Amino acid sequence: MEDFVYSGNPGRVVFGSGTVVRLPEEADRLKAKRILVLSTPEQAGQATNIAGHLGSRVVGTYSKAQMHTPVEVTADAMRWIEDCSADAVLSVGGGSTTGLGKAIAFRTDLPQIVVPTTYAGSEATPILGETEGGRKVTKSDPRILPEVVIYDVDLTLTLPVALSVTSGINAVAHAVEALYAREANPIISLMAEQGISAVTRSLPLIHADPGNRSARSDALYGAWLCGVCLGSVGMALHHKLCHTLGGMFNLPHASLHTAVLPHAVAYNAPAAPAAMKRLSRAMAVDDPATGLFDLAKRLGATMSLKGLGMLDGNVESAVEQALASAYWNPRELEKPALIALLDRAFHGEAPLGARSELPWR
Ligand code: NAD
């Protein structure tokens, strides 16, 4: 066993089916008496229904959460927090709603209860990405980490299949980069391998039958593990590329992760043989980059950045922006190779195959 450092994030998780009925006891544990409920406009009805379990503890529902946590939306929600004298927030939804709850907690240190309905994994991290003037800035702070997460698989049954697939692969991306992170450690690697296995095993079943509760449950469990990975160790090339492209072209978050991940894996594979061995084992494939690409494509995901809305002629400038600030990656960041990587992703081509040389096998 090599030397390692492991530091765990605090947080309480309630996992199962029908678990939202436990909201009142979780609110009591936090001594929360005046709760502001948060959601996107699309999930306002669902959030109101769920909040019904909290009765008179609910002081309002703010349903204007948006992707990438724009600071103007947070400022608007902060007025609600003050007007209602809220003493806690309940976020019902995916990463966008969780992001708003985190932005409020960062400013107020109010406790958060999160009821996740996608596989984004944000609820398990002390990380917040906020957008101001078209630029997304990421910060990490203990106040941002939600106090309680209630996973209720029943709420994921309505997640459309296409978003289930891309959101699941978004979760997998966190665990993949945790396997080759500079701070990688055996505990997080265990979670990463389990998370990848649970998500990639369940996505084809969900695709075939979105109402498959057992597959939904495995995917949600896997997504939690992957979120813990994201919140525990540093990320690398894949997340940097997605962050850059998302900011430059406002591309849909989960789809973007899905289109880029196979290429980032192919790029890093030669420099991370131990991680590739674990990833291959978790996915039960020989070549993880090709395996990820094939899985996503087979399940109907859009694999070209062009198809997601990236404009022609921007590959080089995106790479330059992604290289503008230094960050750690297992393989040295080589501009021509990154341009080739992004060019393949732009056109939706398969990742550069490593079939002929699989050093981790
Ligand atoms: P999302 O929260 O934007 O949800 C996408 C759409 O699906 C929304 O309209 C939402 O209302 C709807 N939806 C969600 N769950 C549903 C359900 N069960 N049934 C029906 N509709 C449902 O998407 P996302 O991919 O979960 O989150 C993306 C955001 O999360 C981005 O802003 C990203 O940066 C952030 N994120 C942050 C972290 C972190 O740790 N800070 C991690 C992952 C993602």
TrEMBL record:
Protein's recorded name: Maleylacetate reductase
MF (Gene Ontology): alcohol dehydrogenase (NAD+) activity; maleylacetate reductase activity; metal ion binding
Family: Belongs to the iron-containing alcohol dehydrogenase family.
The UniProt record lists the keyword Transferase: no
Keywords tagged on the record: NAD, Oxidoreductase
Fe-containing alcohol dehydrogenase-like C-terminal domain: residues covered: 165-345
Keyword match Oxidoreductase: yes
Domain Alcohol dehydrogenase iron-type/glycerol dehydrogenase GldA: 10-152
Signal peptide: none
